[in-house]
């Protein structure tokens, strides 16, 4: 089978996985981009979100074929401003869920560069955090929006 | 054992501790302590990974004791290198968590990211519920799957190893549909059933003289079983070397809280010497107690044994994480108070019914590892126990009041259950503080006193307790609060373990169609806060987790995923205001202090809002409506 091509963080990769492979497995196991993390495999926790063009989607629930022809952005490809805001607010404890939230925040800020607190919470509502860093994360996204 | 603190030729300092980083910021705080003790800049301190081969055995990283215990050990080690050293520069500063920027950028960090060259991917199928038995399983479909190296069955445990993660997942689906299970007999083990199950009773505490009371109040409270709900499913890697080789016979990589205890139980389970097993800690997702980390390490070692020389990585599924991990047990608490004519409490009786809170590895004659009870021949599952109160207790943790109540009697009824109970953040303190602080609120209302004044009147002997209560209520505007429709305020307070941090919480709730917690004002005294923002982060995180437990969570014997075990979401999270009290007193842990007081404050605020007392967690709309009906 001819390798499929996938554009990730501005680079085109040849991928040997079959078209129905989960985008999450392709990113982690084939491309070595471990910033995208497995949490539930059912699109219920938000840990594995990536940008598909400008949309934040769960990579565990996105087949490779659906990502073809689109630009995939993982946390490794995000601009530093949002990450800096998370560090400034110490917006994590374990940080396992952070990459999905950074991606959701990036999607929000592309669509709405000046969101209010309610809009940030709404955009992150599908993302679970067990450590209880929620308020810090909301402040970090608001900080990035005003930076 | 290697030295705890080593200064390298380049002037960098390598630090070995036996306590692990669980996302709680411990290694940052320990580095701050070492930096000051050696008079060096913080960025010259490197915390080494924790490893049975080179780290000191400091037991389990639990109980909000690590800053005290590991911090003291490192101060001693530093004093040997630099006697008398230590101008305070880093300690007391809110320094950022070590490595956070790299972690956020997606740099490999978690055990899930550890993918050595040639690693194979294992999956294990445990019985769907503890005690279920395997009636049969045709392994051929799984064996025929692409990339599968082998399918294993031993007793009631099934597993497979495949070339890639996706191939392992696919083969596991075949294995799961082929397995035929005989369910374990159903047992009634919810909080409401605990009082009627077999139990053994012990008196935990008795003090004071019997004093005549003019009025007696009684109430019974409960909390359900609660799941850890780690965001990452448990994961481990294992590799068996050739027998008699100079290196470890079995190497394991784990996110366990206690690598030495895990090593001991792995050695027991596989019949090898503990010295032949090397266990290395690699961070997982946030850990709040005895979760599936140790179990999945057994799973990886079990599968890897069939492929000597190959490293096998096992990852649990979301359903495994919620179903196979131990759970924090259900508890029931019965309280009785005798009041004098002024409404002061002169007699207090606290009785608790609970399964044991600790079934951790490393403490029993047989391994406390799930898979070890399911293979053939099986090892016996050790009982769940409560440690003695002097070392923190389990079910009875914080059952002894710090209030000056005159005559006090505390009893604990240890209940046997089939369900697998073990340590979850704060152990018994969560239910005991919820119950006792709810009951105090009931006493205040029954006697027409202010809940704050009643507490202060019984805490006059403890300045630091009064100080956190005053600080939290001031931040919350307690004395000037205005009555609004469906809005209520409530207080919760405890000194964690009677010997740890003092913590007071004021909750503001809105009781509409659902109960919404709007704001938590928290004051905490942890002595000298090594990293004040780290303390605030732990206290705030604990309070938000406790809000989730109090409003939403009740674990069944099995769960398919987050859909049937919902936790608190961003739009439901309260604003949290944390005051860390300035102090020069010895440092105390912060990880577990806020959970019990938060749940009580919320329940008390609900009463303030609606005049309804809900004594059984979680405080769901159904429970609130049922309590309204009972009151009428």
Give me some keywords for this one.
A: 147 residues; B: 632 residues; alpha+beta; 14 helices
What does this structure look like?
- The complex is a heterodimer of chains A (147) and B (632).
- Chain A contains 6 helices and 5 strands; from the N terminus they run ββαββαβαααα.
- Chain A is an alpha+beta fold.
- The longest helix of chain A is centred in the last third of the chain and has 14 residues, at 98-111.
- Chain B has helices at 26-37, 66-81, 100-104, 140-143, 165-178, 259-270, 293-304, 318-323, 429-446, 451-457, 463-475, 532-551, 595-610, 621-631, and strands spanning 5-7, 13-15, 45-47, 120-125, 133-137, 148-154, 157-162, 179-182, 199-207, 215-223, 235-240, 250-254, 277-281, 312-315, 331-339, 345-354, 407-415, 487-495, 502-511, 515-525, 575-580.
- Chain B has a 7-stranded mixed β-sheet, sandwiched between helices.
- Chain B is globular, with a radius of gyration of 25 Å.
- The relative contact order of chain B is 0.12.
Count of DSSP E strands of chain B?
21
Radius of gyration of chain B: 25 Å
* Cross-sheet strand order for the largest sheet of chain B: 6-7-4-14-11-12-13
Order of helices and strands of chain A: EEHEEHEHHHH
Uncertain regions spanning at least 5 consecutive residues of chain B: none
The averaged pLDDT of chain B comes out at 95
What fraction strand of chain B? 15-25%
Number of helical elements of chain A: 6
Give the spatial strand order of the biggest sheet of chain A.
2-1-5-3-4
> Level of helix content of chain A?
25-40%
Structural shape of chain B: globular
Helix content of chain B: 25-40%
Mean pLDDT of chain A: 96
Helical segment count of chain B? 14
Largest interface: A-B, 54 and 55 residues
Largest sheet of chain A: 5 strands, mixed
């Amino acid at each position: 089978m001819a390798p499929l091509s996938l554009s990730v963080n501005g680079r085109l990769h040849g991928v040997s996985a079959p078209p129905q492979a989960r985008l999450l497995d392709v990113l982690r196991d084939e491309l070595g981009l471990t910033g995208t993390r497995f949490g539930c495999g059912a699109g219920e926790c938000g840990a594995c979100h990536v940008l598909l063009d400008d949309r934040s989607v769960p990579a565990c629930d996105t087949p490779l074929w659906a990502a073809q022809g689109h630009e995939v952005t993982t946390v490794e490809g995000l601009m530093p401003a949002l990450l800096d805001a998370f560090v400034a607010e110490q917006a994590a404890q374990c940080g396992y869920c952070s990459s999905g939230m950074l991606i959701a925040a990036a999607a929000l800020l592309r669509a709405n560069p000046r969101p209010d607190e309610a809009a940030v919470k709404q955009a992150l509502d599908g993302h679970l955090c067990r450590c209880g860093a929620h308020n810090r994360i909301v402040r970090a996204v608001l900080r990035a929006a005003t930076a | 054992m290697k030295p705890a603190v080593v200064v390298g030729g380049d002037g960098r300092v390598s630090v070995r501790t036996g306590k692990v980083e669980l996302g709680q910021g411990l290694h940052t705080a320990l580095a701050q302590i070492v930096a000051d003790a050696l008079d060096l800049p913080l960025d010259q301190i490197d915390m080494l990974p924790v490893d049975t081969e080179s780290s000191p055995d400091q037991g389990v990283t639990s109980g909000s004791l690590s800053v005290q215990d590991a911090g003291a050990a490192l101060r001693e080690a530093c004093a040997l290198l630099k006697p008398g050293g230590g101008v305070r520069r880093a300690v007391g500063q809110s320094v950022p968590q070590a490595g956070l920027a790299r972690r956020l950028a997606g740099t490999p960090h978690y055990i899930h990211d550890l993918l050595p060259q040639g690693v194979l991917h294992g999956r294990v199928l445990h019985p769907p519920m503890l005690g279920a038995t395997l009636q049969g399983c045709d392994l051929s479909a799984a064996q025929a799957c692409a990339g599968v190296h082998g399918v294993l069955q031993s007793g009631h445990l099934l597993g497979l190893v495949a070339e890639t993660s996706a191939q392992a997942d696919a083969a596991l689906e075949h294995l799961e549909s082929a397995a035929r299970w005989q369910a374990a007999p159903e047992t009634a083990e919810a909080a409401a059933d605990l009082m009627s199950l077999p139990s053994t009773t012990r008196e935990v505490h008795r003090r004071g003289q019997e004093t005549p009371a003019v009025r007696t109040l009684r109430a019974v409270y409960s909390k359900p079983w609660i799941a850890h709900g780690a965001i990452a499913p448990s994961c481990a890697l294992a590799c068996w070397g050739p027998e008699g080789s100079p290196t470890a016979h079995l190497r394991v990589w784990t996110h366990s809280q206690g690598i030495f205890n895990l090593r001991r139980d792995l050695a027991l389970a596989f019949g090898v010497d503990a010295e032949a097993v090397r266990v290395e800690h690699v961070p997982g997702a946030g850990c709040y107690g005895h979760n599936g980390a140790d179990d999945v390490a057994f799973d990886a070692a079990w599968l890897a044994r069939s492929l000597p020389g190959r490293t096998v990585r096992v990852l649990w599924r979301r359903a495994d994480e919620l179903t196979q991990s131990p759970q924090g047990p259900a508890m029931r608490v019965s309280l009785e108070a005798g009041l004098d004519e002024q409404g002061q409490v002169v007699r207090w009786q606290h009785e608790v019914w609970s399964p044991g809170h600790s079934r951790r590895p490393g403490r029993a004659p047989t391994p406390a590892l799930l898979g070890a009870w399911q293979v053939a021949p099986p090892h016996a599952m050790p009982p769940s126990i409560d440690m003695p109160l002097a070392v923190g207790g389990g079910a009875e943790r914080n059952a002894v009041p710090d209030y000056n109540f005159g005559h006090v009697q505390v009893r604990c009824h240890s209940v046997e259950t089939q369900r697998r109970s073990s340590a979850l953040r704060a152990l018994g303190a969560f239910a005991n503080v919820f119950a006792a602080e709810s009951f105090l609120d009931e006493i205040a209302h029954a006697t027409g006193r202010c809940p704050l004044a009643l507490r202060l009147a019984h805490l006059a002997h403890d300045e630091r307790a009064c100080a956190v209560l005053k600080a939290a209520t001031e931040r919350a505007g307690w004395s000037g609060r205005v009555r609004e429709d469906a809005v209520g305020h409530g207080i919760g307070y405890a000194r964690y373990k009677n010997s740890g941090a003092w913590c007071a919480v004021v909750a503001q709730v809105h009781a509409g169609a659902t109960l919404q917690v709007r704001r938590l004002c928290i004051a905490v005294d942890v002595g000298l806060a090594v990293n004040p923002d780290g303390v605030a982060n732990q206290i705030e995180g604990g309070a938000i987790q406790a809000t989730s437990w109090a409003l939403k969570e009740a674990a069944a014997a099995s769960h398919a995923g987050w859909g049937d075990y919902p936790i608190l979401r961003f739009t439901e999270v309260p604003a949290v205001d944390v005051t860390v009290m300035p102090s020069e007193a010895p440092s105390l842990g912060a990880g577990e202090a806020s959970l019990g007081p938060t749940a009580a404050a919320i329940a008390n605020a609900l009463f303030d809002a609606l005049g309804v007392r809900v004594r059984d967690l979680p405080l769901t709309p159904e429970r609130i409506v049922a309590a309204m009906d009972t009151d009428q």
